[in-house]
Write a structure and sequence with these properties.
Layout lengths: L1 H22 L1 E4 L6 E6 L5 E7 L2 E11 L2 E8 L4 E8 L3 E4 L2 E5 L1
Antiparallel strand pairs: 1-2, 1-8, 2-3, 3-4, 4-5, 5-6, 6-7, 7-8
């Protein structure tokens, strides 16, 4: 049973890692005051920066499950929020805002 659990955990980790390079990149928001940059850290995890109405946030704990994702956003004013969205072939949707891959 322990071996099965270890194999399942490894499978999930490999799947998430395999998706990371596909998601990594720069995305242009609906106006100049919106943007998203996602990159793969040396440890294989996704990290990034998010700009919403001119407010800048660092994204941590990014989790991708299929075409859905969540991330913790730490804004420059000290506020925290969990953001979630969906991935498409052309970009990322967060709420009503679409971010097109550049």
């Amino acid at each position: 049973m322990k071996k099965l659990a270890a194999v399942l955990m490894l499978t999930v980790a490999v799947t998430a890692y395999a998706q990371s390079p596909k998601i990594a990149g720069s995305y242009r928001g609906p106006s100049e005051s919106y943007g998203l940059v996602l990159e793969v850290a040396p440890d294989g995890k996704l990290r990034g920066n998010y700009v919403e109405s001119g407010r800048v946030a660092v994204l941590n704990a990014i989790e991708v499950k299929g075409e859905k994702f969540t991330a913790r956003a730490s804004f420059d004013d000290g506020s925290l929020r969990v953001i979630s969205g969906s991935l498409t072939e052309r970009g990322v949707r967060i709420g009503e805002n679409f971010f097109e891959r550049m």
